[in-house]
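Review box. Two proteins, two foldings.
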Amino acid sequence: MEYGLSTYLYVNERLSSHILDKILGAGFQNIELFAARQHLDYTDRHHVGDVAQWFRDHQVNLHSVHAPLYGDADWGQLGGLAVSVAYLERRPRIDSMDEIKRALDIADYLPFRYLIVHMGLPGEEYELSKFDAVMTSLEHLKVSAKDRGVQLLLENIPNELGTPERLVEFLQYTRLNVKICFDTGHAHMTHGLHPAFETLRTYIASTHVHDNRGEKDEHLMPFDGDIDWTEAVRDLRRGEGQFPVLFEIRDYGPEMTSLSRLAEVIDRMESLPEED
């Protein structure tokens, strides 16, 4: 399998060439940038320019960018908007689209393939009218994305709007040419990883791979939670060549979370049997 890493691991640090050197040194050629202002300030042309220069210097292609979740540099604690394409109210929805478009502007300096977008906020309840709000938002964003050669991906998330079944329903309802970023941890928290994968399999273009214990979105290293990774890896192998196994793990300190431990995880995944 082909592997990648999200800079979410370093989300509380300003993204620098030192961080990117470590990621590349660990063997990851598929990189996703996490667009959070405290980490990657997509509104700062100089910061984006420095990051873009690193990619050019090292001849590494940027796989994807995760759209911002908040409009400030402290996860909403500074009063920034919680970004959502599903707001029924027009003003916050437009503000959210504007924030996402600022992250899309990264492609003016640094081309990338996919922009990962959440469908609503954590705990969001389902309403059909929200499908219309999301459709309006995505149609607007797709214009900016297409101009930059970027494809939008919706991520399955633990709310009533972004479940695998709702995502398929949304795509069939809207007929938008949008694909899926399959998140293993979120699938495990909802209806189970294998059923979620089966539901979304034909739509998947990228992944977020991490573990948890089924209740909280912990973003643990694989094998540190209670996902059945023998079954999960078999599913992921079915998409080999179509999408990378892209780790989106949280920093729990050097003993719990390190690139050397991640290398051990990859070795363990590779050693899992193909079939029983």
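Next protein.
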Amino acid sequence: MIESPTTSIGLQIGVQRAKFAAELRANSGGELITARESENGTSPVVGLRLGLNTQDQRWRLVLQGQYLDADWGDFDDYDGDLTRANALVEYRFTDNVGVYAGYDWFKLNLRQHGSDGVAGLDQRFRGPMAGVPLAF
């Protein structure tokens, strides 16, 4: 980590525990077919974080990105990745309370290889975010 009174740059390394679950229901000719599949696993997550703030610590800008590859973990027949990036601006009224607003981008791309073929999921979430940070 590189840190000064107004700047911090850090590498994020951690472990993500995830559970993937899917359910299929089909009705064909009056016959109901259901199937369920679930998988748990852990995988390392890497990321980068940049924080900039004013000298009085009231205003902050935070940029971060994270990446998880299912191949790194113990997810059996699953292949894919999770990518996330966000940016936010925060204002602190006091040392303990503030408000923030920003933008979050999240992508999950997952495939399962089986004897019947490959099933996949590609989900993307993006949009504004806002909140109230409380520091103790």
